[in-house]
Structures are given as C-alpha cells and as structure tokens.
C-alpha cells in the first residue's frame, strides 16, 4: 500500500530527438519522502507527469499501490491516489475564501457536505492555516498559498503527495514555511511524499534523493551523501 514502483520507464515527446525520460527505475515505500533533483531539462517535470498519469510511458511500467498503471482508463483512479502541488498556486485557486477553495475541490469529487466540512477542518489544521480560513486565497503570502494548495491536495486523501517545484517561486521565509509543512506531513500523518526541487535545502530533508541528468536517473543518495558530494 501507498507505494510506487517505477520499472524501466521511458518517454519521448513526439517532436524530440531523444528521450525526456530514459529507462528510469526506482521504488518508493510507504511513508517515505523522496526528493528528485536535477538541472533544468533533466526530465524532472516529465517524470512527474508520468507518475501523475498525465502522460503514459512508452516503455516500462509504473505500479501504484500494487496496481499497474497501464492505460488512460486507469488515470482518473490514479488522480485520486496521487495528489499534485505545483509551482504556482495562483493558477489553481477557485474559491473566494480558503475554506471554499478546499471545499470546491471536494465537491468535484462528489463528497457529501458533512464529510466535506470534516475534511476541510482536518486539512486546515494539518497545514496550520485554520486562522486564515476566511481569507481570500490570492491575498495570502507565497508560503501560505502553498500551504492552502497542500491542504487542497490532502483533502482528497491521496496515498502519495507529489510536489513539483512547490518552493521554487517562494522567498526564503516562504520556502522554510513550506518545507516545515512537508516535514510535518511526513512525520505526523505518515504521508508518502515525492518532492521535485532545485532547492538543496528542501532536498536534504527527504529520506532519499534521486538525481536526474539528461533523462537518466544517475544516482540515489542520502542527505548526508548529497551534502558531502556538493
Ligand atoms: P525538467 O523538469 O528537469 O526541467 P523536463 O522534463 O521539462 O525537464 O524536460 C526534459 C526534456 O524534455 C528537455 O530536453 C525538454 O526540452 C524536453 N521537453 C519537455 N517538454 C517537452 C515538450 N512538450 N515537447 C518536447 N520536448 C519537451
Ligand atoms: P519546467 O521548468 O517545469 O520543466 P519548462 O520551462 O521546461 O518548465 O517548460 C514549460 C512548458 O513547455 C512545459 O509544458 C513543457 O512541457 C514545455 N516544453 C519544454 N521544453 C519543450 C520543448 N523542447 N518543446 C516543446 N515544449 C517544451
């Protein structure tokens, strides 16, 4: 349960010469936090899209919670189990308050009112944003916006949370705030987390760090090893 096994996956964009992701394999266990790092163009976003079912691998398999993701038909099911948080939360807010924004996402999943209210309270507590529940999402600081985006992702009760450059646009204070939130999810609610990042400071909090280069996964290191190979 709550695990991902990636076995030899490759993906090439139709107009490209080389694979954006090339024979990548790795495994994430339940409650593990993995960071994926690499230069621009190394294939991180493409890997995120593959994990999220937005694109399908041309070769290899992705197994989520012991189930192989084979075809487009399974994607909707995957989306409920893998929640994504992106770089810019401003593009995704739909509610006029933090509360509405999270509730709206649940309405789309057909969750009934009482359960919806319960979950909204729960996730706002987890990200420590209860006091901002009536604020307009766009009026919040960068770090607070990402905490709302994380709450929205958690509300659908995913097995795995993927953060794609979630701290990249933030100032140092916001970055620290979001990293702290991810650490809490990992520690307190045992969330399985994949964070794709340029930020070494974020990566070193993960249990393990995968390094991408030119579409290949070139290394898997511990935080200590990452710091000493810098
Ligand atoms: P990263 O997220 O590490 O910056 P990407 O996954 O975005 O890397 O890109 C990996 C490679 O695939 C790069 O060479 C990039 O130019 C190419 N690429 C990304 N998206 C597309 C696309 N839609 N069409 C063609 N090539 C793409
Ligand atoms: P990121 O930093 O998230 O990798 P990019 O700036 O690489 O973002 O890409 C922005 C968008 O452009 C993405 O949707 C990506 O798929 C697309 N893209 C990136 N490289 C190419 C490319 N060589 N050809 C076509 N589309 C690309």
Automatic annotation (TrEMBL):
GO terms for cellular component: ATP-binding cassette (ABC) transporter complex. Coiled coil: none annotated. The gene is ecfA1. One of its GO terms (molecular function) is cobalt ion transmembrane transporter activity. It is a peripheral membrane protein. The keyword ATP-binding applies. It is found in: Cell membrane. Transmembrane segments: none annotated. Keywords: ATP-binding, Cell membrane, Membrane, Nucleotide-binding, Translocase, Transport. This is Energy-coupling factor transporter ATP-binding protein EcfA1. The chain holds residues 3 to 232 of 280 of the full protein. The keyword Transport applies. Residues 4-230 form the ABC transporter domain. Belongs to the ABC transporter superfamily.
